[in-house]
Structure formats: C-alpha cells, structure tokens
Amino acid sequence: MIPPDQGNNATDQVERLIALLAKLPGMGRRSARRAALRLLRDPAGLMLPLADAMRSTAEAVRPCRLCGNLDTVDPCRICTDPNRDQEVLCVVEGVADLWALERARVHRGLYHVLGGVLSALSGVGPEDLRVDPLLARVSDGHVREVILALPATVDGATTAHYLHDRLRPTGASVTRLAQGVPMGGALDVMDDGTLAAALKARRPA
Amino acid sequence: MIPPDQGNNATDQVERLIALLAKLPGMGRRSARRAALRLLRDPAGLMLPLADAMRSTAEAVRPCRLCGNLDTVDPCRICTDPNRDQEVLCVVEGVADLWALERARVHRGLYHVLGGVLSALSGVGPEDLRVDPLLARVSDGHVREVILALPATVDGATTAHYLHDRLRPTGASVTRLAQGVPMGGALDVMDDGTLAAALKARRPA
C-alpha cells in the first residue's frame, strides 16, 4: 500500500472522494478517479448540485411502510393512488425491478418489495425478507391476485415456490411472469433454458 | 419523452439525482439508476458522506496558479516542495496524467498542466491552452529541461512540435517521453505504430 499523499499528490480530501465514489456499482478505482476529475473540473455546475441532490434525497426519501418502495412520502404515491387496482399485488425482489415495471407501464396494481430472494448459498432465509408483511397484506382479504415477478434464476424460482406455498391459505390467486423468448430476441443466441421454457409454454399462433 | 412522474414513480428528486449521476464519465442512464439505488439503500453510510466529501472538496480544491495542478493550497504542494528539482518541468495534458506520473513516482521535478492538446478538428488553438504561462515560466531562466509528456497521438505529437518551436528561444533543453513496447506487452498484440517506433528507437541490448 502506497500512502495516498506519497504515491499521489491528490490531497487526502480528493482521495476520500475517490474512495467513496469507488463504492458505487460499476465504479472501479480508475473510473472513480476519472469521475472525481470530472467533478473537480466543474464544481459549480456539477459537484455542488450533485452534493445537494444527494443530501436532500438522503433526507427526504424513505421506504414505504406498506410496499417497501422508495418515495418522499410514506405511504408512497403508488400505494395511495386511487386509480390503481388495490386488489392486485406484484411481488418484486427490489426497488429497481419496481421501477422497471413502472417505466414499462404494464402493471396498474400495487407492489410489494421483498428486499431480496431466498438463497441457501448467501444464507438468506424468509426472516431476512419482507415475507411476513406480504402475508399480512394478502390475509387482509382485499387482495385478489398476487403476481410473483421474481428473477428467472434458481433462487428466484425457489422463492416463488416458497411464497406460493405460504400464500395458499389466503385464497388469493398466485401467478408468475411468463417465461419465453424476449422481444426482438434472435433464437440462435438464446440459452437452452429460455428455448426450453419458450417451447414448453408454446401457444396457438 | 415520458414525464418522470408518469412513466416512473421515482420522485422528481430521485430523477434529478439520477440525471446528475449520469453526467459522470462512464455512467449511462442505467448505471446512474443503479448508483442512485445503491446510495438510497445506505443514506447514512454512503450518500451523506459522499455529499459531504463533494461539498468540502468543491470548496477546498482549486487549480494551482503556477502549474495548474489541483490542490487545497495555492501554489500546490508540488510547486512548493523544496525536495523537488525546480529546474525540470514536465508538461502534461491534464491533471489525470500528472496524477499518473506521481503514482509511478518517476518524476521528481515540477509540472505544467497544459489543459488539453492542440486540435484542428476540435478547434483547440494555443490560446485555449496554458501555453503562455509555460513560456513565461521557462523564460525566467531557472528551467534547465522541459519534458513533454504528451499523449502519443497525432494531436499530442502536433502539440509537442509546436511547444518545441515556441520553447527554442528560451535555451532550455526540450525532451519527450520514449515510445516503444510497454512493460509486459506481448508483441503480437501491439499495433504497427508501436512496433515501428520501438524498432526505430532500438538500443544496444
């Protein structure tokens, strides 16, 4: 380890900024340095506005107590939107997936953010996820359908199975996203699992 | 264009944060969203410290009036370091290159940050770069050698030629970085220009 102020004349302050930027996903040490330089080149136009946006967002945004979505109000604007179907609940792994579905504007019901998926390997059990709050919401009796929009991975499928079992007593119908060839997907680059799933779930043309 | 609060339930505040993050080099819209989520997941541990680091850095760090390096003091710590050779000046395109040379600990003289290279295509002329301050520094008579550590590109070579011409009257010796095969570089993946330069500049083994 070369001490920052020996191998590098960047001040401790800049080093600290780089270290924090490097914690962002997709950022390595090298790209964090480039980002720091970009910020240093435009303090008034980028660095201070970004600092302010982070501070005010950190202070304003919190998880919704009902669904786990992130918003400046709690319950969030989705949960309190009278135009949304309160009887259909879409279960997602995280907020990123909720945002993706909202961008696609395909789901007009409510959401439930699980906060992860079950994983024996990573030691994630049901108690680590927002499973009990989900059961409580569905047991209220207002929910007609629970859509499991979990990742198409082994852990995602395990979690869907588990939730299906736990949700059975509530009487709500439990559905899953269809699996198949994605839009625009060329068959020759699809993996075998996708092709098998797409063939198995084939429908009349 | 889908309005942020229609196609996406992320608040305007989060949208603004994402838009600012997307301005960082190497960040696209998608990775900025992932970065925003990572920040939102850890407000106290990452988002607020990063906001503070940006604010304090923006307020503290400024370009050195002598060499153009970024530091919290002006003149910077390199320019005022009595252990460095005041008679050797290394000319670099930007602060990133200065940092790279400092990390390698190979130059014990001073620096001069040009702020770019000449480019007919991008319309960058000598008046856009810190050329006059360089000539003033060298004309003082204290500078024995000017090392042109400019990028090994057409624009970098053009700039080096131009600076060599302008520096001739000062009497200082002007040198350039050697070109050749980089350390650990396999010959079969080198481009022709590098191989040609390395062969031309061959030395006794």
TrEMBL record, chains A, B:
It comes from the Bacteria. PROSITE patterns: RECR, TOPRIM. One of its GO terms (molecular function) is zinc ion binding. A zinc finger (C4-type) spans 64-79. Transmembrane segments: none annotated. SMART domains: TOPRIM. Residues 87-182 form the Toprim domain. InterPro entries: DNA_Rcmb_RecR, Rcmb_RecR, Rcmb_RecR_Znf, TOPRIM_dom, TOPRIM_RecR. GO terms for biological process: DNA recombination; DNA repair. Keywords: DNA damage, DNA recombination, DNA repair, Metal-binding, Zinc, Zinc-finger. May play a role in DNA repair. It seems to be involved in an RecBC-independent recombinational process of DNA repair. It may act with RecF and RecO. Belongs to the RecR family. This is Recombination protein RecR. It comes from Teichococcus wenyumeiae. The gene is recR.
